[in-house]
Amino acid sequence: MDCTSEWTPLLVLVSGAPGSGKTTLARLIAQELDILHLNRDDVLHGVQYSIQHGAPSTLKSYRGVTLWWGAMEHLLAGGVTMVADGTMYRGEFEGDIRRLANFANVINVHCRCSNWLERYRSRQMENYGLASDSQRLGAMMAKIERTTHQIVEPLQSEATVIEVHTDDGYQPTLDLIVGQLRQTSPSAGR
Question: Is residue 139 part of a domain?
Fold first, then answer.
């Protein structure tokens, strides 16, 4: 299913380190623009649930990332405008973005937060009960710290980048971000 040459949807990719506020900002943008929001963690959790409830073991959780990119490609090829968020690794995911740019105008909204690592650690302890499992929490934190250089900077792609500081609200403000996205609305033709 290919989008006609007269319509180009918009893909707002919200990136940044875990705990930088990506999902919250992506939900707000989707709500303001009244468009689809596709969260990478939701896809990963759906894959894990499916495996736990009888899906073939060949459906491994790492495939959730592949399914997330594939869902975006399928929806964009059908002409659907959307916001998608997830931790994206600089130097690894630019090819995926180039592929999606064949179907959409891509804008990368990149979240920056000075205390993202502490936010992430707190969330893991609260949401996954890791406060009592210090070994597992330590392993997760070590993995995140090893990839810090890939997640704190925007992706290296030809997509327009809007950098948003999320330490205390949003800078630029949500209204300014949404206003800029509306100026880059889906278009007829390219």
Answer: no
Is residue 164 one of the residues assigned to a domain?
yes
Is a pLDDT exceeding 70 seen at residue 4?
no
Domain count, the chain: 1
- φ and ψ at residue 160, rounded to 5 degrees: -65, 140
Integer angstrom CA distances of residue 71 from 32, 39, 40, 180: 22, 11, 10, 25
Residue ranges in 58-115 assigned as alpha helix (H):
63-77, 94-100
Please give the torsion angle defined by the CA atoms of residues 90, 14, 115 and 65, in that order, rounded to the nearest 10 degrees.
-60
Structural domain span for residue 33: 10-115+152-183
pTM for this entry? 0.84
Which CATH number is 96's domain given? 3.40.50.300
- Asked whether residue 143 is assigned to any structural domain, the reply reads no
Rounded (10°) CA dihedral 61, 67, 68, 73? 170
Q: Spell out where the chain has E strands.
A: 10-16, 36-39, 82-85, 105-112, 160-165
For 14-30, how does the pLDDT look when each residue is reduced to its tens digit (9 = 90+)?
Answer: 999 888 999 999 999 99
pLDDT of residue 189: 42
Residue carrying structure tokens 């893909």: 11
**Would you say 156 and 90 are in contact if contact means Cβ atoms under 8 Å apart?**
yes
